[in-house]
Amino acid sequence: MHEMSLAGGVLDLVEKSAVSEGFRRVTRLRLEVGKLSGVEVESLRFALGAIAPGTCIEGAQVEIDEPPAQAWCMNCSNLTSIKERGDACGHCGGFQLQATGGSELRVVELMVEDD
Predict the structure, then answer these.
(1) pTM score, two decimals?
(2) Contact in structure between 35 and 68 (CB atoms under 8 Å)
(3) Which letter, b or e, does each residue of 76-90 get, where b requires 16 or more Cβ atoms within 10 Å of its Cβ?
(4) Which CATH entry fits the domain spanning 2-114: 3.30.2320.80, 3.40.1710.10, 3.40.50.2300, 1.10.10.10?
(5) N or C terminus: which one in the chain shows less Cβ crowding within 10 Å?
(6) Would the CA dihedral through 79, 80, 83, 88 be positive or negative?
(7) CA-CA distance, 74 to 89, in Å (whole number)?
């Protein structure tokens, strides 16, 4: 499951931030996982919980937002919302779409306790 390695990457990023910003514990971790990212949200949540004990995210409330995907249509030059790759343009019905959003995985917000 690649979500475990993604969770490890998130933890690494948060721990580096803890060192550089001087906090000891995260009370809330908010992530953004785009609909086109290929990440199973519940698997990522499970993986974060599995690696949390003994780290700065232990006991943190984990919130995961799933923003919708967007694409630019090469036929009509409009932005359109899509649910998955291969969807048609909502404006003209064309299939020549270039994804412009929805493939990201990022840390959006941390609520922390200082040392």
Answers:
(1) 0.85
(2) yes
(3) eeeebebeeeeeebe
(4) 3.30.2320.80
(5) C
(6) negative
(7) 9
